[in-house]
Amino acid sequence: MRGIFKRGRCRRYQSALFREFVAQLVAHDKKFLIIGNKNALHYQEIFKLIKENKVWVGARPFSGGMWFVADYTGKYEKIINGVKLINVPAIWLTNMDNAKRHERLPLYKRYTPEEYPTYDNYNAIEVSKKNEIPCDYDGFIGVPDAFLDKYNPDQFELIGIPFGDLGKAIGVTRNYRGRTDIAITKNGRSRCPYSRIIIKRKP
After folding, report:
1. Domain residue ranges in the chain
2. Which of 19, 97, 166, 183 is least enclosed by beta carbons within 10 angstroms?
C-alpha cells in the first residue's frame, strides 16, 4: 500500500476529522475499508462501534505497522528503489465481513492466581499475551490491543477500555498515581500495563 503521510500540526483536529468521517460512513450505511491510526481504537466513538460490532479490525495482523511513502523522518525507515518509506502504527478498519473474524482463538492455558494476577483497582485479571487467555476463567480479562485481530464476537464480549473516561464508565477507580488507569502490583512494585482492553469469554 502506497500513500503519503505528513505530520499534522494538530493531532486533536485530525482525530476529530477521523471520528466525524467514520460516523458519516456508519450513519449512511456505507461499506468501507479505511486506514486509521492504532490509537483510533481508544476513541470513545470508535470503540463504541467496535463493541457494537458495527466496525472491526481488518484481516491484516495487528502487530507491526504499515509502510508509506513519507517526506519526514520516522523512527523506522527503509529505502526501496530509491524511495523512502516510513513505518506508521496504522490498521485497517472496516464493516465488511471476512472469514478471519469468525475463527475461534484456541485457548489452552488454565487459570492460576499466580500467573494471572488481578488489577489493583479493577476486578479483572492481567493477560499480557493474546494467545494466553485462560480457557477456564469466566470473569473480566485485560488483554493487549493486538487481541482485536483475533476478536471473534461469537467467542468473546468486549467490555471496555480501562483508562480515562472510558475507564470510569466501567468502574475503574484511581490507581497509585491518582489516575483512572488500571494498575497491577507484582513483586512489591506497582505499574500500569500499556494499552489494555477488557474482555470476557462467552459461554
Report:
1. 4-99, 124-201
2. 97
Give 137's contacts (C-beta < 8 A, 6+ positions apart).
111, 116, 125, 201
Identify the helix (H) or strand (E) that includes residue 5.
strand 4-5
Q: How far apart are CA 60 and CA 67, in angstroms?
A: 13
Distance CA 156, CA 55 (A): 15
Beta bridge pairs of residue 143: 197
Q: Where are the alpha helices (DSSP H) in 52-180?
A: 164-169
C-alpha cell belonging to residue 13: 483536529
- Please give the distance of CA 130 from its chain centroid, rounded to a whole number: 11
Strand partners, 80: 83
Model pLDDT, residue 11: 64
Interacting residues of 68 by C-beta distance below 8 A, sequence separation 6+: 1, 2, 3, 4, 5, 85, 86, 88, 90
Segment 92-133, tens digit of pLDDT: 999 999 999 999 999 999 999 999 999 999 999 999 999 999
Q: How far apart are CA 196 and CA 146, in angstroms?
A: 9
